[in-house]
Design brief:
146 residues, mainly alpha, 6 helices, 69% helix
Length: 146
């Protein structure tokens, strides 16, 4: 019996599927804020929702979601990216969605809660074997990064 923290192949496959799906959703939402709504439109939307400092918050959130989503897909810097995305979703939940209740169809928090918890789970577990973290960073950086 060996003492290892390296996930099994099946657990790593599960993490890969989770990373790709969650990362794709985050990347799509970030791209939407940048390219479809445009940054000025997203800033206006954030201002209308009462988000403090929308001129700073909107671009930061948009790029965290776009770049963070792509990094999750690749499994690169998964733990810190997962934390940033979980914080992003926690703020969205409290600042925007919580008053509307659970159901997303009514503007509720179910979607952001699932995304936030999935990102947090990836921050806790890491990317697994099938990732750039495992290929490039394992053993070279502190465990909280890879």
């Amino acid at each position: 019996m060996t003492n290892t923290t390296r996930p099994s192949a099946s657990a790593s496959l599960g993490l890969l599927v989770l990373r790709v799906v969650v990362g794709s959703v985050f990347a799509a939402h970030g791209a939407q804020k940048i390219f479809e709504y445009t940054l000025p439109g997203t800033i206006g939307s954030f201002a209308g929702m009462g988000i403090p400092l929308p001129e700073i918050a909107a671009p930061v959130v948009a790029f965290i979601e776009l770049v963070g989503g792509l990094l999750l897909i690749a499994g690169f810097f998964t733990r810190p990216v997962g934390i940033l995305l979980a914080i992003d979703m926690a703020v969205a939940l409290v600042a925007v969605h919580l008053p509307a209740g659970l159901w997303v169809g009514e503007g509720g928090y179910e979607f952001v809660a699932v995304l936030g918890v999935a990102a947090l789970a990836l921050a806790f577990t890491g990317a697994g074997r099938f990732s750039l973290d495992a290929a490039l960073l394992r053993g070279r950086v502190p465990a909280w990064i890879a």
